[in-house]
Amino acid sequence: MSSVCIIAEHQNGKLKKSTLNAITFGKDAAEKLGAELCVVVIGHEISGVADELKKSGASKIIIADDACLENYTAEQWAHVAAEAAQKYDAMLVGMASGTTGKDMMPRVAVKLNAGMGSDIIEFDGTTFKRGMWAGNALATIEITTPVKVVTIQTTAFAAAEPVEGESVLEQLDISLPQTKTRFVEMRETVSERPDPTEAGVVITGGRGVNGAENFKIIERLADIFGGAVGATRAAVDAGWVPNDLQIGQTGKMVAPDLYVAAGLSGSIQHQAGMKNSKVIVAINKDEEAPIFQIADFGIVADLFKVIPEMSDLLEKEMS
Ligand SMILES: Cc1cc2nc3c(=O)[nH]c(=O)nc-3n(C[C@H](O)[C@H](O)[C@H](O)COP(=O)(O)OP(=O)(O)OC[C@H]3O[C@@H](n4cnc5c(N)ncnc54)[C@H](O)[C@@H]3O)c2cc1C
Fold first, then answer.
1. Can you tell me the distance from the alpha carbon of 4 to that of 147, in angstroms, rounded to the nearest whole number?
2. CB 276 within 8 A of CB 248
3. Do 107 and 235 fall into the same domain?
């Protein structure tokens, strides 16, 4: 039987939430194509990740485990992903459109001699839709090769819910090529807070926060929810917060249950990264700020008054 293969993303032995959104896309695509859904897990000592996926609704979890695959390099992972796709007769191969997916899937497409679509938000069984120009235009594309490769805009799909029954786990025999790149070192930003792409609540500050020190009030509110801190490019460019917190077209794409946008105008480039959030709360002094057009709740006020008040109230309620 032909398959739809979704490549799983994981970090420090834990599945990345975006993979569950990619699986929702994969399930729907597999149904439309009359194929089975396979999820491919690449790495080393990844049985925990495979276990997390057992109830995701995939027919098979394909495990490619080798000490050489412990650290991601696009060259090796793309080779293994392409081997899995060939072995399981994939018609469609996809991965979440994050840093890794964007880095590796074009290589997978080349190896499979496949056409590729990026940032896919819809598939009707024949054509794909993708957002362009920060989501201001939608392109419909057809990939005409027998095998199709995509990166998936995960904010457009809900996370796959656990199902009854378990997927079959299969080990993939892999042949690793001589590669021209080698992993040397990983320098990770270590934070107590979740990554904005993984968090259920994201509190984002913009230029209106007006300084690195002032971001403490954003952090305090985020910590009350056990949530993540986000920032606009203006705040990142000013050097107030690290750039891995940037939300938007050239930052991270998020769709949390709650997104609080404080002291930011809501430029199209920022909206591109957060407009799919379930509930958006905007705090801005300027009632004309574009962020209010997409906000579910708008507070026209000074963030330095509202956020500490909000935090005090929430702390009281939650204690
Ligand atoms: C190619 C390209 C890619 C880009 N990618 C991104 C991206 O990924 N992410 C991103 O964010 N931007 C991106 N940008 C930049 C984007 O165009 C905007 O410049 C940026 O989003 C503005 O950030 P801001 O809303 O924080 O600042 P501003 O637009 O200056 O807005 C600040 C807001 O804060 C309000 N404010 C000020 N003080 C207070 C206060 N005390 N209380 C309440 N409100 C207050 C003001 O009324 C104002 O609305 C990109 C731009 C380009 C050209």
1. 10
2. no
3. no
